[in-house]
Design a protein that fits this description.
Blueprint: H1 2-18, H2 22-33, H3 38-44, H4 52-91, H5 110-124, E1 128-129, E2 135-137, H6 138-141, E3 160-162, H7 164-168, E4 175-177, H8 183-191, E5 196-205, E6 217-227, H9 232-247, E7 252-260, E8 263-272, E9 278-287, H10 289-294, E10 303-310, H11 311-318, H12 332-335
Parallel strand pairs: 1-5
Antiparallel strand pairs: 2-4, 3-4, 5-6, 6-10, 7-8, 8-9, 9-10
The protein binds 3,4-dihydroxyphenylalanine (DAH).
3,4-dihydroxyphenylalanine (DAH) binds near residues 180, 260, 285, 307 and 308.
Length: about 350
């Protein structure tokens, strides 16, 4: 009989192992452990064994067999439950991040990147950002900036005029595409009381033929400070602080005497790169009393400084682009490099 128990146990364990799902396992368990199952039949035949010791031994063997079978059942059941859950999770999976082919990510234009970086740096220095229209009047673009009609400095700006008719009405001045961001100085002074600390980035236009260093449409950032007791030292200090913040600690700046009709004295500012080379960046100076007056500011009470430089040049420099036109070609092979 002991052999019968061993055989029944082995068969039961095999049936458990081969059950491939929970339903099959339940069926096998009922068959094996029920009264009519092999082990059940053996159990009920136990009472027919006459010898007490033998019955005891057989009873113990049967009990061991039952608990082995029960243990195997529990283990295999747990495995099947886990497997089933995994199968369901896999079948119901909905991956929203998966595309047939992942779309490539673009980035901001080089000039936009430089523009935003410049704004960040000046806002960090306490400036606010101002704006002006791209179509300007002659008065804001030239006259109010101390470049009256016939002023020779007007010749330096190859101006694109629009809407000549507008100028024919008395008191009106002609419309043009602004040649620099300096008219925003006048608009800001007329719109707000000093103290003024603003930067004005924007698009400017000149009748230039495109070449490696010129575009007829480009970008400048203007700066204007008007307050009590502002001196050239404040201008130099601001340019230096900006140079460190924008280019890094290895860079310094210098001012070189120059001429602009809207500043007196005027200077050009250069930055010194870590390798010792100098690079011209833009113009600056103390706001001319006539310009303050045009902006409705009393030059006896207030003084100020202004500066302006090209954003495109900064972008070109930063990325060592040899031809400014490449930035506007929309050639993906160029754009992808940044
Ligand atoms: N507006 C000048 C230009 O486009 C640049 C400039 C020079 C701006 C001196 C200024 C300044 O504010 O003070 O060439």
């Amino acid at each position: 009989m002991i052999d019968d128990i061993t055989q029944a146990t082995e068969e039961a364990l095999k049936a458990i192992q081969t059950a491939s799902d929970l339903a099959e396992l339940d069926r096998a368990a009922a068959e094996m452990l029920g009264k009519r199952g092999a082990l059940g039949v053996l159990k009920s035949s136990l009472s027919k064994v006459a010898d007490i010791d033998e019955r005891k031994n057989l009873g113990r063997a049967l009990n061991d067999a039952m608990s082995a079978v029960n243990e195997a059942l529990a283990t295999h059941r747990a495995n099947l439950v886990t497997e089933e859950r995994l199968r369901r999770v896999e079948a119901e999976r909905l991956d929203l991040t998966e595309f047939p082919s992942a779309p490539s990510r673009g980035h901001l234009h080089l000039v936009t990147q430089a523009w935003q970086h410049l704004e960040d740096v000046f806002v960090g220095l306490g400036f606010t950002v101002a704006e002006g229209p791209e179509v300007e009047t002659d008065w804001y673009n030239f006259e109010a900036l101390n470049m009256g009609e016939g002023h020779p400095a007007r010749g330096e700006f190859d101006t694109l005029f629009v809407g000549h008719d507008a100028a024919e009405k008395p008191g009106d001045s002609g419309l043009l595409l602004r040649t620099h961001t300096s008219p925003v100085q006048i608009r800001t002074m007329l719109e707000s009381e000093p103290p003024i600390y603003i930067v004005a980035p924007g698009r400017v236009f000149r009748r230039d033929t495109p070449d490696a260093t010129h575009m007829p449409v480009f970008h400048q950032i203007e700066g204007l400070v008007v307050d009590r007791g502002i001196t050239m030292a404040h201008l130099a200090g601001t340019i230096e602080a900006f140079t460190h913040a924008f280019f890094g600690p290895g860079f310094t700046s210098r001012l070189r005497p120059s001429y602009f009709p809207f500043t007196e004295p005027s200077a050009e500012f250069d930055i010194r790169r870590p390798d010792g080379s100098w690079l011209e960046l833009g113009g600056c100076g103390m706001v001319h009393p006539e310009v303050l007056r045009a902006g409705g500011v009393d030059p006896e009470e207030w003084s100020g400084f202004a500066f302006g430089f090209g954003i495109d040049r900064m972008a070109v420099m930063r990325h060592s682009v040899s031809d400014i036109r490449d930035m506007y070609s929309n050639d993906i092979r160029f754009i992808e490099q940044f």
